[in-house]
Amino acid sequence: MGPLAATSAVVLDAGALIALEKGDRKVLALCKVASTDGAPVVVPAGVVGQVWRDGARQARIARVLGAEGTIVEPLDLELAKLAGALCGHKGTGDVVHASVVLVARQHHAKIVTSDRSDLERLDSAVDVIPC
């Protein structure tokens, strides 16, 4: 069936978006499989802020962000508080990483990341696909 089970949502972190922009075939395939299966590709808004520099040069990222089935989760007050509390509980300060973990929990999703250890520090049960 491929690298994902049917209906598996994927959350992309900054490392995944950077890999996507560099043409990483694994990340492109993961996004395509999720989309084909009708599962969302989810990107926390804070992650977009980490990688977005020049939209004219980031066509692959722009395509994924604008694709049908992609959800950009806002970093609103509620998520910001939850992310901050998670950071405080785990003794870390990366609110964007915390938001990635929380968004993955919300969507019952796998996280595509190059920062496996940082995310597992926040949640040892997180389902990670390395890129």
CATH architecture classification:
3-Layer(aba) Sandwich
Counted by DSSP, the helix tally is 7
Q: Runs with pLDDT <50, length 5+?
A: none
What is CATH's topology name?
Answer: Rossmann fold
Please report the first level of CATH classification, the CATH class. Answer: Alpha Beta
Order of helices and strands: EHHEHHEHHEHE
CATH level 4 superfamily: 5'-nuclease
Taken together, the total number of domains comes to: 1
Largest sheet, described in full? 5 strands, parallel
The percentage of residues in β strands lies in: 5-15%
Distance between the termini: 19 Å
Radius of gyration: 14 Å
Describe, in plain words, how this protein is organized in 3D.
This protein is α/β, with parallel strands linked by helices. The chain has one domain (10-130): Rossmann fold (3-Layer(aba) Sandwich), CATH 3.40.50. It is 53% helix and 14% strand. It has seven helices and five strands, in the order βααβααβααβαβ. The chain has helices at 14-21, 25-36, 45-51, 59-66, 77-90, 95-107, 116-122, and strands at residues 10-12, 41-44, 70-73, 110-113, 128-130. The chain has a five-stranded parallel β-sheet, sandwiched between helices. α7 links the parallel β4 (110-113) and β5 (128-130). α5 (77-90) packs across α6. It is globular, with a radius of gyration of 14 Å. It starts with 9 loop residues before the first strand and ends with a strand.
What is the element layout, followed by pairings?
Elements: E1 10-12, H1 14-21, H2 25-36, E2 41-44, H3 45-51, H4 59-66, E3 70-73, H5 77-90, H6 95-107, E4 110-113, H7 116-122, E5 128-130
Parallel strand pairs: 1-2, 1-4, 2-3, 4-5
Helix pairs in contact: 5-6
